[in-house]
Amino acid sequence: MNVDSFQIEETLCYFPTRPMMYNTLKAGYFHRGPCLNTLCVVVCLMVLGIRMTHGDVKSRTGTINFDRNNDGISEMRLNSTGLGVGVSPQSKLHVGGNAIITDSMSVGSSTVGSSSLQVEGTFGMSFQTVSSNVTVGSHSIILADSSAENLTVTLPDVNQVGSGRVYIVKKTSPLNEVSISGDANIDGLSGVMLTSGSMGHLNIISGSGNWYIRSISGDGVYEELWTPGDVLSSIDVWYDASDTSTVLAGASDNVYQWNDKSGNSNDAAQGVSTNQPTQNSDSIIFASNDYLEVAHGVMPDTTEASMVFIVGLATSTIEGFLSNGRFSQGGSSYSYRTSNAGQSVTWYSWGNDFADVPISTPYSNLSIHGIELSMTGSSVKIYQNATLEGTKSSYTGAANGGTELGLIGKTYNTEFLNGEISEIIVLKQEPDVDMRQKIEGFLAHKWGIQANLPAGHPFENAAPTK
User: Fold this and answer.
1) Which residues, in sequence order, are bridge partners of residue 312?
2) What's this model's pTM, rounded to 2 decimal places?
3) Checking CA distances to 423, which of 264, 308, 365, 378 falls within 20 to 30 Å?
């Protein structure tokens, strides 16, 4: 039954024991009864199946107003009228049991100095005790269990939670380290770490697409997380799908450009719509004949010392991750793909290949693929999740005299990737163990695959810090 308004003569009757009359066209009239306040109307309306679309529920001391705001959202407002306006009586909402709000609730007004929420008694907030890596969900307080090893707390998408969301991360033991990071900076930092030796905490709030520190434990109890941005001068190429500002997509999330974060403007692009991959929340999805192109010389050549890191996965054999685009010329191709033999990968330079290298984790799982090419050591090394899977010694490349474009999501001919790529980092320099391990640790913790790092890796338990 739909009605426009109700007029209450005094207080709402307790409907099981008192009669009630109503006019289904315009208004309903409730006789006096033992109910104590106007808000009891809401209960009777629900029990009786009466739906208020708009209008007022009125009593001698106030109204409950049902209406739609400027955004078309239904609202219920409590208004005090009559005796002692602004003093007493005042609008009140009394809940005798539990009140469950499934979305959000705004309390208060824009009036300066107005009290938005008054709590007489205790105020409880939900918390979660964790002993391993966790992504924050519905709980506002995260307690790192005293028996936990070093762990990572990943904050939710700041754009989804909106402004004003508060979280508290608290250590309950001085023995472990807790890293906190997310898709947005924390007061300009890529992340913070509550270090061992303290019982630190971090209290943060979201706002304008970033996280801000409200309070943090005393000096010396946290550190800023390290990122490749701290050595940007050493980075030649950096594609990061989690940084959605670098991914330009059109209709149906088709990606036409993936911008380089290194500052070198080595952007990848695809102008043909039928060859454009698609954007996921934190990865680029390649299927069928999708691929991106980069300028000649962006991807390493086989006469350039380099370290290349790819975070991605493939679904089948002979699927290409990337290439310098040079084919059919002996020793001058730089191409990396899955093999045609079981769970293995192949790096090939056309005639001087490193083929069918077995890997420890199925390539259908998100992994960090690493390729090291050393000119001083005349070697090629293949890593997966920081584990050295194979070494090709006595390697010599050939100069690339072509002008071909580099490729992402494809190698030679029909070697297309059916999978996804989340991040690519390229350094054109002689391999360096410290740099390699920092990037491995950064990527592993960022993408939640740190459990795949080998035992003894310096960052198996905690992300690298500055």
Assistant:
1) 367, 421
2) 0.66
3) 378
